[in-house]
Amino acid sequence: MVIVIHQSSDTRNAFQYNEKKIKEGVASYFHSANTLSVNPFMYDQGHRWKILHDIEKQNPRVKKKCLHISVNPSGSDLLKLDDRTVRQEVDRMMEHMGYGSQPYFVYKHQDLERVHFHVVSTRIDKMTGKKIRDGYEKDKMQKFVKELEQKYQLKQEIPAQLRNLKFTASSGHLKRNLESLFKELNRIDIITSKELYDQALGLFQVEIRKAGRGHMVFVTDENGAVIRHPMKLSDFEERPRFYLSRQELLSQEQNKKDLPNTLSKQNHEGIAIGTLKSLIIKEMIWQMQAQLNGPLEKRKKFRLKEQSKKRKKGRRL
Fold first, then answer.
1. The whole model's pTM is what?
2. Angle between helices 273-316 and 174-187 (to 10 degrees)
3. Which has more confidence, 99 or 259?
4. pLDDT of residue 303
5. Which residue has the higher pLDDT, 276 or 69?
6. What is the pLDDT at residue 163?
7. Is 303 left (phi over 0), alpha (psi -120 to 50) or beta?
8. Could you tell me the pLDDT band of residue 72, with boundaries at 50, 70 and 90?
9. Which residues form the MobA/VirD2-like nuclease domain (predicted)?
10. Cα separation of 64 and 10, whole Å?
11. Residue 31's pLDDT band (boundaries 50, 70, 90)?
12. Contacts of 224 by beta carbon, 8 Å cutoff, 6+ apart
């Protein structure tokens, strides 16, 4: 079981993100609590937003008003937790975190090849108009997760998308997920060369190899052995920018300018795998660059140290 408290400052963004998933058909209304209407999901989106917005208007000075939590059970967790139990435990979680009396909406998502839940509420107390204290939130949530795992004998198993971002012999929707990976890598400015791009792909056990006049995409194991049937790079709509011709690169850049950047907004609010990959890739690329620059920095320090010794020696003479 993984429960994430998202650092969303704007409640409207988190709310609209989940409502949009409903319209796209990849999420459903699941649960609500502490609203005047018995079932707020019977009404339109404006009705639900008004419930939260009216509370937040009491305290316009607070910048980070949003409470956005995602509950991510693994496949084995869901065998032990039915919908009724999940609703009960979400209520218990909100009570544990100090938001038990607040109005909140729960959405059931099924857009990442797994079921997970998003909870949207506000940090502004509906009674006092003051911000609810949120100190030690992570510690409190970790305590709740441990209690939950013990109560239902859940394994400490992280969903595959979070536990291991590497592609494997059993990875589903391979072509689509590879395109997603290429797209995320293409957005990262710190990857300034084909070599760095290939190293980043290697972190996911993906290789691009020259084959005749074109290139093939391979998924490998940790030893570099091919474990999936290779695919032509030309068959991908989204391709690594360092493998595009100049004309294709210009065309891709123009398409990005013409199209609204809705995907990045969606990823920004949820636990979407694209955002997670992007953040982790940035960190790993930084580590790789640190390793590459490490020997150079050591040589610089060594030269400076030697120059300092010579100057001291000269003064003595």
1. 0.55
2. 40
3. 99
4. 63
5. 69
6. 44
7. alpha
8. confident
9. 47-154
10. 7
11. very high
12. 207
What is the CATH code for 2-161? 3.30.930.30
| More confident call, 28 vs 1 | 28
Q: In the chain, which residues fall in CATH 3.30.930.30?
A: 2-161
**pLDDT value for 265:** 38
Mean pLDDT of the chain, nearest integer: 80
- Cβ count near 124 (within 10 Å): 23
- Spatial distance between the Cα atoms of 17 and 118, rounded to a whole number of angstroms: 10
Which residue is associated with the tokens 């060594």? 302
Give the integer Cα–Cα distance in Å for 98 and 117. Answer: 19
Question: Crossing angle of helices 194-202/273-316, nearest 10°?
Answer: 120
Which phi and psi angles does 209 have, rounded to 5°? -125, 145
Please give the biggest Cα pair distance in the chain: 91
Neighbours of 229 (CB within 10 A): 8
Residue 47 CB neighbour total at 10 angstroms:
13
pLDDT, mean of residues 245-260: 60
